[in-house]
Specification:
globular, 212 residues
């Protein structure tokens, strides 16, 4: 059983299965439109998948760098979003060639909950490095109440971290959010319910403002 943070085959197979599905966004970023509209740097869409958030941002005229671990997902994004810019990498190995303070906004939509604790802290420190002063991370992560999508199920690997449905998944409570995301800066968050593939999904929506 694979319990590493390397599941490229899983994600490629998953996006192949849904390759023809239309890209659509759920407007979760809409409440941050003032922040997004004012952004004059490239926005980093980290773990972009097939491009839901990239589509929202590009429709607002923003320059976006869309990054994912799945080659198939990026191919789908490039096919559907004209003039898109993409980069293939595992979030646990963020490219260290990103200059410090490169991005005013980083989007990480359901992409930061797949890693062991040490790796998650490493990611947070790297996101802090590449965010500008007073830059913003907008993220969504699995909630510990996300019962339809594996919360508390499978083989426990760490606190709130499980091998379930074929890969590793972390589920966050409020203590976890403060512990991990406060590495970057000031954190605000709220638990939300969205519809995901026919079931309700419980998640935390998070805004982090970098502090020095």
């Amino acid at each position: 059983m694979e319990k590493k943070e390397n599941f490229s085959d899983y994600w490629n197979n998953n996006y192949t299965k849904y390759y023809e599905r239309k890209i659509a966004y759920d407007n979760w970023l809409e409440k941050y439109d003032d922040l997004i509209n004012a952004c004059d740097t490239t926005i980093l869409d980290l773990g972009c998948g097939a491009g839901n958030d990239t589509l929202y941002l590009t429709e607002k005229g923003k320059d976006v760098l869309s990054c994912d671990y799945s080659k198939v997902a990026l191919e789908k994004l490039e096919k559907n979003i004209e003039n898109s810019k993409t980069m293939l990498f595992n979030i646990s190995n963020l490219p260290y060639n990103f200059e410090s303070e490169s991005f005013k906004i980083i989007i990480a939509d359901l992409s930061l909950h797949y890693f062991y604790e040490k790796t998650t802290f490493d990611i947070m420190n790297e996101l802090k490095r590449i965010l500008t002063k007073n830059g913003t991370l907008l993220a969504r992560v699995n909630s510990v109440n996300d019962s339809h999508y594996g919360a508390g199920k499978g083989e426990k690997l760490e606190h709130n971290y499980y091998y379930v449905t074929g890969y590793n998944k972390r589920f966050f409570d409020e203590t976890d959010i403060e512990k991990f995301f406060s590495v970057i800066g000031d954190v605000t968050y709220s638990e939300k319910v969205i519809s995901r593939f026919g079931n309700n999904k419980k998640l935390f929506e998070i805004k982090v403002t970098k502090k020095d």
